Amino acid sequence: MILTNNLTVNEQRHLAVGGADTVELAERFGTPLYVMDEAMIRKACRQFKQSIDTYYGGRGLPHYASKAFCCKEMCRIIADEGLGLDVVSMGELYTAMSVGFPAQDIGFHGNNKTEEELRYALECGVGHIIVDNLTELDTLNALAGEMGKNARIMFRVKPGIEAHTHEFIMTGQIDSKFGLALENGEAMEAVKRALSMEHVTLGGLHCHIGSQIFDIDPFVMAADVMLHFIADIKAQTGYAVEELNLGGGFGIKYTQEENPVEYDQYMRKVSDKVKADCQALGIDQPFIVIEPGRSIAGPAGLTLYRVGSVKEIPGVRTYVSIDGGMTDNPRYALYQSRYEAVCANKADAPRDQIITLAGKCCESGDLIGKDMPLQKTEPGDVVAVLATGAYNYSMASNYNRATKPAVVMVKDGEARLIVKRETPEDLIRNDL
Ligand code: LLP
After folding, report:
1. Among 107, 129, 104, which Cα is nearest to 118's?
2. What's the CA angle centered on 409, arms 394 and 333, to 5 degrees?
3. Does ligand 1 have an atom closer than 6 angstroms to the CB of 295?
4. Cα of 249 from ligand 1 centre, angstroms
5. 355 close to ligand 1 (CB < 6 Angstrom)
6. pTM, full prediction
7. Which one, of 33, 47, 9, lies nearest residue 348 by Cα?
8. Is the minimum distance from the CB of 331 to ligand 1 under 6 angstroms?
């Protein structure tokens, strides 16, 4: 297995994704090219839903975190799978609404939503606006009053657990730009204020502890903290919180060495904790929302590039330069993220070279990765970088006036264009 079991090598010795030949895709649609596998996306959606059915009696819903990869077709697929959606900007919400995504299943996030965004969310009738701070609460109450609406909200709470990849910490959480702190009474104050407001209805609480997390314990601990807070709210105000949104953050396999746990193990352990806590604390079991982003879109995607030059610097390193780079995948430049790459037109050959995959931007840090194993490549070869479905297209930029690549969706060996490649005319469209 190359990384995920939807990747195979076909008779032409080419890398295939979801049955489609990647070398043919590169020729037909041009490079750089993002390729998404619809079956993988749908499978991940179903796994998350199924885990809630199995372990929590179906009293919950996954909301896909659209920041991972957002376009009209992705929103259509998510709606078709019956998942909700996490949006964090007017742009993401607009995209969802443009394909008729059910607004009641949308949660609108953000630590500094503008008035324009809040108005738009109210107009659309989103299921919940996840309120980050007291200023936002007051603004929202006023806006909803003015618009003759009632805003259904959740509060973003800092549970005091911060987890990133393999580590998590339980202190210092107060120092975060997101949400309301528990330890200084800020979150409780917000709850009480919301309960006294005329144009706001408190529906639940939300927390999110980080991203690309492999360990289940911090998720369980976050749920525990939130349930204790729900019990405190009930004791102090009599109000029973109906819904608990536990955020996203489930880690994916970027490299052969990484081994994320099965996602249903997460739901099994978290459900056990929720049920046990609710019984011990004498509170009702809340409806549970989870917000997977990377784990739905990430493994389903790869990026195809054409090799331009190969620069061997004896005793130093070999740079393989491709026709994209940090403009379509800024994750190495930002986080030193690691990826696996495969030479798509000789996919069965051993990856016995150690190379640095370099982009075409005018910047030394513009790399896709350093010291990566790859087949011996030559100019004209097609290189596939794997597991790029999340936080690649969505974080792409026009630096150096690069045009954003096209996105194709593959299903049953057939490919269809879902996002057109940008053109130079697109780049000057707003220039005056
Ligand atoms: N819910 C909330 C409130 C979030 O802030 C996030 C991610 C998610 C859900 C989805 O998390 P996921 O399941 O995708 O880990 N650009 C970074 C990732 C930033 C994640 C921000 N929040 C990267 O490329 O690794």
Report:
1. 129
2. 30
3. yes
4. 6
5. no
6. 0.97
7. 9
8. yes
